[in-house]
Amino acid sequence: MSQKQDKATTERHSKTLRELLKRPENKVCSDCKRNDPRWASWNLGVFLCIRCSGIHRSMGTHISKVKSVDLDVWTVEQMNSIQKWGNKRANAYWEAHLKPGHIPPDQ
Ligand SMILES: [Zn+2]
What we know:
The protein has a three-stranded antiparallel sheet. It starts with 6 loop residues before the first helix and ends in an 11-residue tail after the last helix. It has helices at 7-22, 50-59, 76-84, 86-96; strands at residues 39-41, 46-48, 66-68. By secondary structure, the protein is mainly α. It is 43% helix and 8% strand. Strand 1 (39-41) and strand 2 (46-48) form a beta hairpin. The chain has one domain (7-96): Arf GTPase activating protein (Annexin V, domain 1). The chain is built from four helices and three strands, in the order αββαβαα. The protein binds zinc ion. Zinc ion (ZN) is lined by residues 29, 31-32, 35, 48-49, 51-52. Zinc ion binds next to helix 2. Pfam families: ArfGap (PF01412). Keywords: GTPase activation, Metal-binding, Zinc, Zinc-finger. Residues 14-107 form the Arf-GAP domain.
């Protein structure tokens, strides 16, 4: 499907991801606001804990495309998407589009 990515690019991407995770808005899981996010949905542009990443996976890849920050190889396209969004902007977007009175599930 796609060409194999060279090692230098992959390493640069993982360094960028580690730096993204140091930002205050990305230090907690986008969904449960807890834990240490080591996973991300690159199409939604959010960082997730392992538990919430499982929930995102179960929604299907047409909704959420989940990858491990530590274990997976990130492509240029995926990096562009996660950098464009990030937890803060993605949350603002999704919360703005929720119905009035909707309370996001706590757990
Ligand atoms: Zn979570």
